[in-house]
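EI: anyone free to look at a 235-residue chain?
SC: sure, send it
EI:
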Amino acid sequence: MELWAGFLFGLVGGIHCIGMCGPIAIALPHSGYRFGFAWIGRIILYNFGRAVTYAVMGLLFGLAGSTFALFGYQQEISIAIGAAMILLAVLPTRIGTMLFAKVSLDVIPRKMASAFRSLLSKHGYFSLLLIGLLNGFLPCGLVYMALAGAIALADPVTGMFYMLFFGMGTAPSLFAVSFFGTMISMPLRNRLSRLAPFAIAILGLILILRGMELGIPYVSPKTPGVMQQNHSGCH
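SC: here you go
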C-alpha cells in the first residue's frame, strides 16, 4: 500500500512539477532527438536520476523514522505528520506559494547552479543522468512532504522504495512538459501547480489512517504487536 501511495502522490502532485521543474525539463540537452526513441530514452534517463536521488533520501529518512518506531512512537508520528500535511494543504494561498516556490538557478547554491548550466550545455547520456540526480536535490515542498511520509513509514527499505515510486509518479508530468515544451503556457503551469495541495491532503489522510491502525487491510492495518496485545486481552 505504501508503495502505491507514493506513486499516486507523485502522479497527482507531479502536476506541480510542470511549473517547478518544467524549465529544466524543457532545457534538457535533447536537441536533435525530439519525439524519437532516442529522445524517450534520454528523458527516461533524466527521470531515473531523479528517482534514484529520491530513493536514497527515502532510505535515510526511513532510517530516521525507524528510531521513533524503536521507542514505540510510530503511530503518533504517522498521525502527527498526516495532520500537519492536511493543515498545510488548507493554508492560505500566500503561505502555500512560499512553500511551493518555483525553482530558479539564481536561488540555489552557486556551485549547484554552475553544475546545472554546465551539464545542460552537453549532450551525453551521463550528463542527463547527472542532471536528474542533481534535480532531486533542488528545494521542493512536494518532495519535503513525500519525505515526511517516508519518516512515518519508519523503515529504511520501505522508505527507499516509497520514494522511488514517488519519483516514478512524477515522471509523466515532466514527460509531458518536455514533449510539449513552451506550448504549455506559464499561466497554465501556475494553475496546474495549485493542484498539489490536494495530493498532500490525500497522503496526509492515508498517514493518519495508517497511524490509527483500524484493522482495514492495506489502508489501516494493525501491526503484529498491536494484534498480539488485542488477542491477549481477550483471555
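EI: The chain has 13 helices and no strands.
SC: 👍
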